[in-house]
Amino acid sequence: MAQDPHSKDGNSFDLVLFLWGKRRFLLGMALLGLVGGIVAAFALTPRFRSEVILFPAITNSVSKALLNEQSTGRDDILALGDEEDAEQLLQILHSDQVRDRTAERFNLLDVYEIKPDSRHKRSELRDAYESHVKFEYTKFGSVRVEVMDKDPQRAADMANFMSMQVDSVWNEMAHERALKGYRIVKESVDELQAEIKLIGDSMEVLRSLGVQDYHTQSERYNEYLGAAIVKGDKRAIDEFERRFAILAKYGGAYVQLQDRQFNEIRRLSVLNMKLEQAKADLDSDLPHKFTVNEAYPADRKSFPVRWLVVAVSLVGTMALALVLLVAAENIRKIKAQHA
To answer: 179 and 208 in contact (C-beta within 8 Å)?
Structure first.
């Protein structure tokens, strides 16, 4: 004779006999979960995965990498970047510019079935975009760009497009800053060139008055004056005294202008080198990443995994059935105790 799953005091509980007594309910729930899982597995829209693998390049200016004589380990334009460079690369990929350009290029509002006149279309687009696009830093120091889409060709095209936009967005930001730097240096060069020209004009006036080179002239005049004195050439002595008077009057100004001109020309040489570096940074279009693998259209779907969907549905349904049975049993016991 089978033992009653409930003892006389109502506290002893035989799980196996209890479940056997509810076998019809459990089988029905299992069948429901199985059918529901199969329906869900075939109802879910298939998605195809494409990915691009990128390595960050060292983020450095072209002038520093190529035109600087004192190079360091981070000045090699062919070297791979470190974790900090990868984080900067990820930040560019997560930027609004990349997302908005991708959305416009592939008309993602229609792809993700978002109403163009919706008040929250930007938030809805961001949520849908983040559910289909993933960027991550790998253990190998690379950055993975992963796109899931119902169209395998579009998934591959989106991944490749976003990887190309890294350089576009980065160069635009760098160009804006480089342009301002170039203008600052160019203005300084123009001002210094005008100043040097003004000094040269002033020196030309002094040369027209007879001051050609103060140090050389004074040395030669002293030699010639001494020779004239020895010879007793009164005319020559008067001429050199006149010239010494001109040197005494304008020589100090000439020497001052000459020294200033020398210093300004040296400054101009330094500024011209900086201008060359700024121009190189302004015209630079070096890529900021190395593309290891480009995306290609997947030949089989990555989502959903149908057997996994069915298994999860079945397990979930059975867990729900057990919870319902336990709840019903506890309610029965509570009613029995208060009867």
So the answer is: no
Report whether 51 contacts 295 (CB < 8 A): yes
pLDDT in tens, 46-64: 778 899 999 888 765 655 6
Are 300 and 244 part of one and the same domain? no
Helix (H) or strand (E) holding 47: none
The whole-angstrom distance between residue 14's C-alpha and the CA centroid of its chain comes to: 64
143-149, strands of its sheet edge to edge: 133-137, 143-149, 48-56, 289-293
Q: What is the DSSP string of 64-101?
A: IIII-SS--GGG-TTSBP-HHHHHHHHHHHTSHHHHHH
- Tell me: pLDDT of 8 over 60: no
Q: Residue 240 above 70 pLDDT?
A: no
> How many degrees, rounded to 5, is the angle at CA 324 between CA 318 and CA 328?
145
What are the structure tokens assigned to 10, written together? 């109502």
Looking at the fold, whether 279 and 296 belong to one and the same domain comes out as: no
- Specify whether the CB–CB gap between 97 and 145 falls below 8 A: no
The answer to the question of residue 157 being in a domain is yes
- Percentage of the chain surpassing pLDDT 90? 19
Query: Which range of residues forms the domain containing residue 115?
Result: 47-177+289-316
Burial 319-328 (b: 16+ CB within 10 A, else e): eebeeebeee
Residues 58-95: tens digit of each pLDDT:
765 655 655 555 555 555 566 667 788 888 899 999 99
Residue from 152, 50, 51, 93 nearest 289 by CA: 93
